[in-house]
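Fold this complex.
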Amino acid sequence: MKRRHFFKVSALGTGSLVVSTFIPLACMPEERETTYWDPNFFIRIDSDNLVTFICSKAELGQGTSTGLAMIMADELGADFDKIKVEFADGSKEKYGRLHLQDTGGSNGIRMVWKPLREAIAITRELLIEAAAKQLGRSASSLYTSMGYVHSAEDEQKIAFGDLITVASTLPAPLEVKLKDPEQFQYIGKPIPGRLTKNASKGTVPYSINVKLPNMAYAVIERCPVWEGSLVSYDDTAARQVPGVIDVFEIEPIEEQEDDYKGGVRAGVAVVATNTWAAIKGKEALEIIWDLGPNARYSTSDVHDGLTAYRDDNRAVAVNLKNAESLLNRSNQKLAVRYDSPRQAHACMEPLNAVAYHYGYKVEVWAGTQSPSMTRERIAELTGLQETEIVVNNHPTGGGFGRKFTCDYIEEAVIVSEKIRRPVKLMWTREDTIKTSKYHPYSSDFWEALLDDKGYPIAIGYQGFTGGPSAFRPFPYGLPMAYRSRLRYIKGWLVPRASWRSVMAHPWALGLESFMDELAHEAQIDPLEFRLNLLKKAEVVKQKRDPWVGADLYPAKLVGTLEEVAERSGWFTNADEDVFKGCSSIGYNTSYCSMVVHLKRGTNGLYLSKIFATIDCGTVINPSKVKSQVEGSIVWGLSALLTPSITVKNGQVEQSNFNDYPLLRISETPDIEVEIIQSDDVPTGSGEPGVPGVAPAILNALFMATGKRVRKIPIDLKTF
Amino acid sequence: MELNINGERYSFELKDETTPLLWVLRDFLDLTGTKYSCGIGQCGACTVHVDGKSTRSCLTPASSLAGKEITTIEGASSNAVLSLLQDNWVEVDVPQCGYCQSGQLMSAAALLSQNASPTTQEILSAMQGNVCRCGTYVRIKKAIEKTVEDLNS
Ligand code: FES
Ligand code: FES
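Structure:
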């Protein structure tokens, strides 16, 4: 089996595609025994007609692998039901770093859509060309469908698998035409896909299921305080647990400049013949820690620290439409602070990774959002060449940003290096809540100068989000001053990891609550107030790289707001028992507006329904898009309504789902999602539905109680 | 020791009597459909049936189960309610990451095997012990309701 990549796809910084053509020396007869053809890094066609899609993005349950496979099937003319999906290894030679491979910022479909279609269109043209030769027809009279090249003139058809020998000898065309949307057979349809089928049978191949010959199982007891160190440990009892093989120290690794890497805590590893023995061994350890300086601080110190930092750093960094001088006027002002707590990711599949350090090469099996960065990091860590590192990426039981960092994989490699055999490193649930990396605590300060009718003239903002070239700019078109950023202090109390919707969460809590406060000051209906401003606002240009998306279009927010207002009866439902709140958010090139209905029941206030409308460009799979928005809303509800992560004397106070509960089925209201039809480039749906949840509910809460709540989480029953 | 799982006999060596069924299934018998997520009975990811009853395998020592009939997600083919639920799970496109879904399905199957026409309230309380971080609750409810319809038609 010869690999003949006669063209290579790689993304440049601009996101453009390079197709470099190699004409292979494939005319030699012995080379004709091709059993498969992999013309580019997205696809392999076997001579028995199996089409394999090689998904460069991670599958965390967000449906990207299904969506991309549908795109491939359509562009190729393949039978979607017969496509096999494999995940690419962490190779930046093939996919580049970030752009086509690492998964975050709801970028899966958005970044891969174009290069994938171009590469597959070339593949299609080559198959057609090969069939033309075989049938003695002109290529223009042939087309592909359901895994065959068909003749438009008669019944003749040839299976893809029978064309690969010839197709692999042909030069790639320099230009190809992408299919017209009318020709799509799958794109736009609600297809469950293979992951759904496997998940319903319990057969998704998560890394936690990996078992290798001679594999050991390991867990680590980590220092409960970030940056604390190990003084000594007694492993006598641990070693007596049946099945325990070895116990040793894990030295801490500093968080790297790029905080997705490193940040391994000091710890003691227990290696055993099975997971239970390892966990029991860990519980039997007696450890003395030096907890270090962070043990002096608690969550309240972070809150006060942010206040102090703000008082000392109030300079205006960005001044749009002369906002600064307006804000200096002596008119009436509204100035408020919003606080968001730390959160844990609590992926249902706890962090885990299998690693085998052979001495001269390393292979890992893990569910990771950043396979190429992880490979780079393992090379750095072990001193081996990147070519000696293989990252087998598995579909994973939730990532939500936590599996973008690679500390848990680094740990597995370290343990395997020590014992020179394959090892599955498991985090217990307690480890993932008590000694992990977290969404940071944050405070956002908003102020507005009001005219004598209470209408805003200019806005001031200070928080973690910079502007206006950062990725969550203000869409409402008013004069706006961004004060110097409240710097997130690295490693302060506990380390950080991206958490579904990242800093858009606190930003939206402030922005969308504050817009509501302003509407009430001006005595205008809050949804109408937003529409009025957005209809006058201009497009907000963004200068960041394609990772975070393009310009922000207020008109798209208008579209989603109007749809959700109409559907939820915002202006027409006069039921006095329903308290309504809304929000409207642009997130990395997608737009999502929401309306919530609060009602008062015998046990206090409760959520009766949430309506959401998303505009994410061309919809690949409406079922997946809607389920992402539903899931995002549940995520946002957990963040708002269930207890958060708190730190006392450097230690996280929560440990498992008993004291860090997540939203459950009976607490979930009815959720109804609609999608705006659009022909624009497809954009993400995994996160845009998160940030608007908290403000929409708090805005409804204000309608119900007249109380403005600016700090989350909350307990609805207490109002 | 020996266990009866999905109608088959499995024998294995059990060195530690406290080993929960969960880890016997996963590490010793390679029945990895049953999942670990909390280990303290709080999330339902590890749900199996013991003599038809919904049971948290993370809290149940395997040594206590000799002679009992254990059903895991792998045993769907011999459980009509479970396989109907699975079909509707696909139809409604319930799973996202899928990790919690074995447990969700086992809890739903235990409910519907005992009560083929549950009220909404009964569905919610039977499913209350199963956490889904991806937030598939709306669809879980829909797929169970659809199965109830199918069972009664
Ligand atoms: S793992 Fe058993 S209930 Fe969570
Ligand atoms: S589908 Fe991911 S946790 Fe439920």
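The helical segments of chain B are 21-28, 80-91, 101-114, 120-127, 137-151.
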